[in-house]
Records
---
Amino acid sequence: MSMNFTSTASNLLPTLKRCTWLPQYHTSLLPQIYAEVQRHRETCNQIYTSGQVDNTLSDSCKPILQLHLQSILRIKRILLSYMNYRINRITDLVYESSVIPENFRSLLSGEERTFNECYNDLISEYSDSIGVSFLEYSGGIRGGDGSTLPHFVEIQVEQERGGVVDNGVEVGLEGGSRHWVRREAVEGMVRRGEVEQRDVEV
Amino acid sequence: MGYYDIDDILMEDEHVTAIARIDCASLAFLRPYNSTNTAASTSSTTLMTNEKVSLPLWTLPFLCFDSRFFDVTLPKHFSDSFRKKLDAGGDSFNLRLKSPYFYSSGFLLCSLVSSSPSSRRSSDNRLTLLKKECTLLLSVLKKTFIGSRLRKTLDWSLSFRDEDCTSYTSTLTTEELTLFEIGARASLGYQEWKRKGSRFIQVSGIVKSKDRRVVSPEDKGGDKGVKQMGEFEEEEGKKRRRIEERL
C-alpha cells in the first residue's frame, strides 16, 4: 500500500503546469481514481464494522479510518482543481480565439468541447444584447472630451480573408494586399494571426 | 492559498517525520522500507507506539493536531542550525534543493502548530517546544523571503534581457520563481512597449506556436459584394489622403 493514499490522483496535476496550454484529457486515469475512491469507501466500512469494541470504535482504528476518509476528500479536491484549471484555460481561449484550433481541440474531452461552444454562444448572445463585443477588443485613444479617436493600422494580407467592414465601407482582403483600416475592425483578425499588422505608427 | 490552487495541493504532498503516540492498527505500511525498529514485528500490520514514520503535510491536521495520534517534528531544513544559517545570510542557499515549496510548507506548519487546540494544554511539553520553534521559524522565513533574496530575484527578473539565467532560477523556490516570472513578464512588456508602442496588436500566443489556420472567404461572407482590386486601391488611396488631411 502506498504511503501516499492519493498517489493516483496526484499524477493529474504536475502535467498541467508543464504544458503551454493544456495536456491531453486523462480519460485513462480517471476510472482508476474512481476505483480508488470506492476502495477507500469500502475499507472505511470494514474498519468501522470490525473495529467496534463495546459499541465504540477502538482508538487504534481511528487513525486509519481518518486517513481513508480524508483521502477521499483530498482526491475530490484534486479532481476539482484539475477540472477548474482546464475550464479556466478553455474560457480564456474564447477571448483570444473564438474558434479552438483543430490541434488543440483534440486535447479536450467531449464535454469540454461542448462547454466551449456553449460558453462562446453565451458570450456572443450577451455581446449582441448590449451592443458591445467582448470578443473583439475595441481599443482606441480617448479624446479630451471623452470620445474615442479612431486609430488606424496598416495590415498585410497574405492569404485571401474575405472582407471586413470599416466605418460602413466594405474592405476586401485579397491575398498580397495592404490596407489602412481602423484598429477595432481588424484587431480580432490580427490576434488570431489571420492578417499581419505592419510596424508603422500613426 | 486556495482550495483549487495546484501549487498548494502539490506542496501538501511534502513529508515530515512523526512519532506514533498510540498503537495504530493497519498503519504499518507507513514505516520506512529500511526501518530497523526492533520493537516492531515485521509481520504485524500495526504501527507501534514511538515508531517514526513519514507523513505528508495534508495528514497533519487530523493525525497530529486535532487528534494527537502522532507527534510531528520539524524537517532538517527547518531545524535550529539551518535557521541560524539562513538568519546569517540566506541569499546564497539553494533552497529549491531543500524543498521546492520551502516557504509555503514552513508557513503551513507554523499555522497548524499555532492553531492546534491541543497546544493550549501546558502539560503537553513536546507540543509547547514545537510551538516555540515554529515562532522562531516564522520570523526567519519572513526575514529570508523579504530580504536580500527578494532584492536579488527582482533585480535578475527586471534586467536579465535575453540572457540564460537558469543557473540562478534553478536555486529558487516555487514562490520565488513565480515572483521572478511576474517581474520578467513586466520587464519584457515594458521593452515591447518602448519599441513598438502600445498600439501594436499582439498575436495570440496559441496561434503563434501553431500553423495558421485557413479561413475560407465563405466564413466571412467576403465574396458577396466585394469590389475589384483596382477600385479598392482607389478607395484605399482616398482613405489615406483623408487620414493625412486630418493629421
---
Amino acid sequence: MATAAITASPADPQYPHSLTISLPLPSHHLADTIQRALSVDREISPFVQRTYTTLPDSPILQIHYKATTARMLRVATNGMFESLGTVLRVCEELDVDVLEKELGE
Amino acid sequence: MIALGLEGSANKLGVGLIRHTPGKPAEILSNIRHTFVSPPGEGFLPKDTAKHHRSWVVTLVKRSLKESAVKVKDIDCICYTKGPGMGAPLQSVAIAARTLGLLWGKPLVGVNHCVGHIEMGREITGANNPVVLYVSGGNTQVIAYAEQRYRIFGEALDIAVGNCLDRFARTLNISNDPAPGYNIEQMAKKGKNLVELPYAVKGMDCSFSGILAVVDMMAAQLLSGKPKPLLTPEGEPVTREDLCFSLQETVFAMLVEITERAMAHVGSEQVLIVGGVGCNERLQEMMGLMARDRGGSVYATDERFCIDNGIMIAHAGLLAYKTGFVTPLEESTCTQRFRTDEVLVKWRD
C-alpha cells in the first residue's frame, strides 16, 4: 500500500502556495506508469501548475503543485488525490501479475 | 478480436467485453453495469457521480474478466467514452482506462458515446440504414448516415427529452430507482386525462424547457391546491398520473414528428430508437404507429443496450480500431462536447 507525504516547497512569488505529494511505489515501472496516466489531464485552471519528479535511486513519484491561492491549491490537490485513488487501486488489483494469480490467467 | 469497453458519461458505469469474428455477428462476452441512484427529488451531481464510478470501476472490470474468462493477453484494445457527457465522471473512467492501457500494454480507443449507441443498435437489431432517434437524459438527436458520418438532422435546442422527464420526476419526488424515466412511465400508464401542454417543435428541432416549466407549475398547483385546485375542463381533479401521461404524450409526439420529417427527407422507412428513453414502451408504440403508416418499421433494443452500457463502447471502439484508429495516450482526454458528426465512420462505406 502506498502512502503519501506532504511537504511545503520553496515559494515561487507568482505561485506562493505549494505542495508536494511523495508517493513511494514498489517499482520504477509503476512510478512511470502512474506519472504517464496522470499527465494526460492538464490542470483546468491557469492559476495552478503541476509538475512531476521521479527520483533515480528509489521508486518514489513526486507530484509538485504550486498555485496562486490556497483555495486553488486545495481544489487541485483534492482532485489529484481522487484520481490517485483510482490509479493506485487499478495498479493494485488489475495489474497483469495480480490477475494471473487471482484469475489463473 | 476482443475489446474492453468502459462507459461512465452519466450516472451509469458500464463495463463490456466484445468479440468480433469475421463473418459472424458480434459476441457479447460480458456486459455489466452499476448505476448511481440519487435520492428522490435530487438529480446526480458530477462530483458524487465521479466518486461512484471511481469506487466501482475496478470491481466491475475484475468481475467482467472473471465472468467471461477472457485473458488480458487476448484483449486487443481498451475502449473508453471520450465524450460527450459530464466532465468529472468521464475523467474518472478515462483515467482508469489509461492506467489499464499502460499496465496491460494495450492501445486505447476513445469512443463517441452517441456513436456507441448507434452502432450497438444497428448490431443488435440488424437495421441496415435507419433514421436513428437517439434519446436519453443527456441527448436528443435525430440522426441519419451519409458519406461516412452520422449527420444530425434535428435535435433538442435546450434540454434533452430525458432531462425534461427526469427533472419532472424530481418535482413529483418520484423515486430514481431504477431510473426516474422508468417510474414516470409506470405512472403514466395509470393516467386518464390528457392535460394540454405546450407543443414545441421548431422545424427539425424541438424544445423541452418551456414544457417542463409549464408542467412544473401545474404540479405545484396540484400539490398545493393554490391558487385553486388543478382541474380538467370537465371539473375533474388532475392527478400526478395524468401529468406524467400528458407530459409523455406531448414530448413523444414531438419526437415522432421530427423523426418522421427526417424519414421523409432522407427517404428511409426504418427507424432505430436508441438511448435510455428508447426503453419507453409508449414511445416505441407511438413511433411504430407512425412508421407503419409510412409502410416502415421501428427497431429498438432492450434495457441491456438502450441504457448506457460498456458493451456499446467496446463495439464501436473495436469497429474503429479495425480500421486502424487508435487514440494515443497523450490524446486520451475527455470532452463534454463531442458532436456525433465529428466522428469519421470509416468502417461503413
---
Amino acid sequence: MAGEAVSKASRPPNPCPDPSLPPVVKKKRNLPGTPDPEAEVIALSPRTLLATNRFPCEICGKGFQRDQNLQLHRRGHNLPWKLKQRSGKEPRKRVYVCPEESCIHHNPARALGDLTGIKKHFCRKHGEKKWKCDKCSKRYAVQSDWKAHSKTCGTREYRCDCGVLFSRRDSFITHRAFCDALAEETARVSAAYTMTNTASIGSVDSLLQDGVATPNIWKHLSPNLKPNIMDREVGQQDRHGCSSWMGHGGRLDNAFDGTTAMSEINHAGLVDSQLSWIHCNKLSSLPTSNTLKPLMGSVPSLFTSLPHRPAPDVSATALLQKAAQVGAISTTPFSGSFGPSECQNTSAGDGSVFDGLLIHEFAASNTDEVYITRTRSMLRDCLGGATRDFLGVGVQTLCQPSANGWI
Amino acid sequence: MRNTDPCHHHPSICCLLEPKDPREEEKWAAELIQECAKAIADKDSSKIRHLLWVLNELATPYGDCDQKLASYFLQALLGRAAEAGELCYTTLISAAEKQQSFVTARKVMLKFQEVSPWTTFGHVASNGAIMEAMEGESKLHIVDISNTYCTQWPTLLEALASRGSDTPHLRLTVVAMLSMGRSVMDEIGRRMVKFARLMGVPFEFHVVSIVSTLGQLTEEELGLRKDEAVAVNCVGALRRVRVEERDAFMRTLCALRPRVVTVVEEEADFTTSRGDSVACFQQCVRFYSIFLGMLEESFSPTSNEKFLLEKECSRSILGVLACNGGGVCERREKASQWCERLTEAFAPTAFNDDVIGDLEALLERYREGWSLVPAKGNAAGLYLTWKAEPVVWASAWKPIKP
C-alpha cells in the first residue's frame, strides 16, 4: 500500500441508520454508493487520488496508477514464484470515501467500491476540467471521459418515431416529449388519457387565423391598403365566428359588440374627434394595391406597396411635410389626453378569464404504481425510437409482482 | 428582409428634417417614440397628436423592425390615451388564449428554442442548479412558475432517469400564467406524464391556476408534502408579480423551504421608471428593439412562429406602457434589482462547472452573436448576451437559514 494513504480501518455504519437515506437493502449490493457493510473504509487524500503513481514497483521503483498495471509490470521482472505473491495482502474488501466534505460520497455509508472509481469520481466532480471538446466546448476532468465524448460528439443522430432527425440530444428529447408519435404510441393503451383535443385538430385553421387576424387598429386604418387580407378576415369571421378583437362567444360579446377595441374606445367618446384620422385611410395608401402577396408569404412593407418610382408627393419626406401642414392647421386642443379623464365604466372585470381558484389534480400515477429502474442502455433504446412499451400493456395500474421495484 | 429600395428612405423626426447619416435613419422609430414620450411628459397635446399621426403613417406590424416597433408602441400609446390599457390587454390575452391550441403553442416554443437560446439558456442553467441541489434526494417537488409551457422539463426528466442508481420520484406543480389556457395545459400534462413513464421516472403533474395575482400565491394552493425536497423554478415569473407585492412574494417563496430557487428574467428595467414616461419609454424601446432584432435574425422572414412571438411582444409592450396595477404586470427589473430583493431571504448559489460547460456547449449550437457573461458587482448569476447586450439573466438561490 502506498505510504501516503490515510487509512481509517473502521466499518461503515449500517447503511440505513437514518430513515431519510434510501433503503439500501432493496438494491443490489454492487451499485455505486452502497458499500458492503463488512468492508474496510479507506479515506485517501486529494493528492493521493490525483496522483498517477500510487503503486510503485519494489524492484525498480516505477510508479503505476492501478494495482493491476503494477502486477503486469512485476511479471516482467521474472521473479521466482515465491516472490510473485503479494505479501500480507488482506483479502478484506476495501471501499473508499471522497475527501470532499460536502460530497455525498464523503459519508462512509455512500462510499465507492473501487479505487479507480473513487479517483474518477473525485476528478470528475471536484477536479479541474482540463480537457475540452473542440466541437461543443464541453469540459471534462478525466481524459478518458473526454476521449470517449470526442469520438461521438456531433456524429450521433437521433431519430424520432415521427421521422424527424436531430443532431442535438436536448432538442431531440424535448421534441420527443411533446411529439404526437409518443402520444399515439400509448393512446391505444390508455383510454383515460385520450388525446382528441378538438381545438387542436382545427389548429391548422387557427394557425392561419393567427397569421391573418390582427388585434390592433390597422384594419380600420387602411382598408384600401390591404384589401386581400380584409377579405380573408371577413371570410374567416363568417367561418369561425370570431376574430381577435371581434366578439367571441361568451362574456366578451357584451363588451365588444362585433367591433374592435379601438372603435369601442371611440364610441365611448374617449377619443377626441381630433384623433378621428385613425379611422381614415393612411395618406400613403393607394386605391388599388394589388401588389400584396398573401400574408403567409412575404408581406411587403408599407413602402413597397408604392409603385417603383413613387411620384415625389408620396415619398416619405413629402409625407412628413404634409404632416407638418396638417398639424399646423388644426387648432382645437386635444382633450381626453394622457391625463386623467372620465372613463366609461367598462367592466374590466370581464377581462379575467379565471372563474375561481382551480386546482387541477392531474396525478398520473397513484401511489400503488410501481416503476422499474432503467439502466442506461434501456434508456438509449427507448430514445432511439424503439417502440416497445417497456412497461407492457395496461399502464394504468402497474403492480409488478416483483418486490424489487420502486417504493 | 430590410427594404433596400433606394427610392424611399425612412424619415427620422417629423418637422425636424435635418440631413442625417443613412445608418441613423434606420432608428427612426426609436427617435419618434422618444419624442412622443417627451411630448407626453410635457403634456403638449398638439405635438402628441402630431407624432401619433406620423407614427400611424409609418407603422405596420408586417414591416421591418422599426415599423413593427412603431406599430406596437402606437397601439400602446393609444391604449394609454384612452385609459383602456388593461381592458385591451386582457382582451388580447383571452383572444390569444382562445385561438391557442396545444399544437400552436408547442410549435412556437419548440421553433423558438431551435433558432434561439433565449429560453433554453435559462432552462439549462436552472435544471443544472436543480439537479445539484437535489442530489441524493428521493422525493422531489418542483413548483414551476414559468412562461415556457413545460419545455424545460423533458431534459430534466432524462437527467433524473440517467442519474445513476436511484431515480427519484418527481412531482411537478405548474402555476399557470394568464395566457396559458386550460386545455393547452391539460394536454401538456398528458404528454409530460407519458414521457416520464417512458423515462422511467415516477411522476405526478398538477396545474394550479391563480385567480388574482401571482403575488398572492399561497403555500396551501401548492399542496406541499412533508417529506419532499422542494425547488421553485421562476422563469419569466417575477416580473408578473405586482411591484408592491414583490418583496412579500420573496417571503412566500422562502416559506416553502425550498432547496433551491431558480430565477430567470429578461434584463430590462421597466420598474424604477414607472412614473417617468421618458425613461420608461427609453428602456422599453431599447429592450424591445433588441428583442425584435434578435427575432428577425434568428427566424426566417416569413416564419409564422416569429409572427406569433411578435404579437406577444406587442401585448407585452401594451402591458408595460398602458397598464398600471390591476391584474396585469410585466414590469421587468434588472438583475441587480432582483438580487436586492432576493437577498432579503436568499443567498445566491453559483452554477457549477458542469452547468457552465453545458451552457457554453449550448451556445455553440446557435448562430453567432450569443455569449455567456457572469454577472458582476452586486448581481449574482449569469447573463446571456446578444451582440454584447445582456438580455437574459439566470441565477440560483438558497434560503438563508433563520
